[in-house]
Amino acid sequence: MDQARIVRVSKYLSRHLRHRPDRIGIRLDPQGWVGVDTLLAAAAAHGFPMERQELEQVVATNDKRRFAIEGGRIRASQGHAVPVDLDLPAAVPPAFLYHGTAVGRVAAIRAEGLRPMDRHHVHLSAERETAVRVGARRGKPVVLSVNAGAMHAAGYVFLLSANGVWLVDEVPPRFLCFPG
Predict the structure, then answer these.
(1) Per-residue pLDDT averaged across 61-77, rounded?
(2) Which fold has domain 97-177?
């Protein structure tokens, strides 16, 4: 499968496993899982046929490990806009985590902190490089440092997804370090 097809399949999976399963007539279980056969049939019925081998290749080779296949089912690892309970473990975060954003959003973040917007959680990374890549998706990237150690000490609960993304309900401005 060529790189363009891998990207198309990955984006299709993200759209329907994280945000709009109803668009192709699938129903996620409470933990976000759907049968692989159900997904493949729904995708084909809605004009996006894919082979099981393509699906498995995208899951296995995705650099961000966005999806998981287990017991004949598939789900997105995090980033859902639809109600799911991923049953992720609470974890003690490193002292600092990072959040990448576009330069145009910094003023609002200074005032309001980081909010989940249309997702269930704010996404943070343990590596600055990952945050740069995330922020660059929507323009010139800005990387914010999050004092996760202080947040944890103040009672904020951090979750760690299977693909290494740190999740928290919000990050108030007092726990953010802005560049410059």
Answers:
(1) 90
(2) ADP-ribosylation fold (3.20.170)
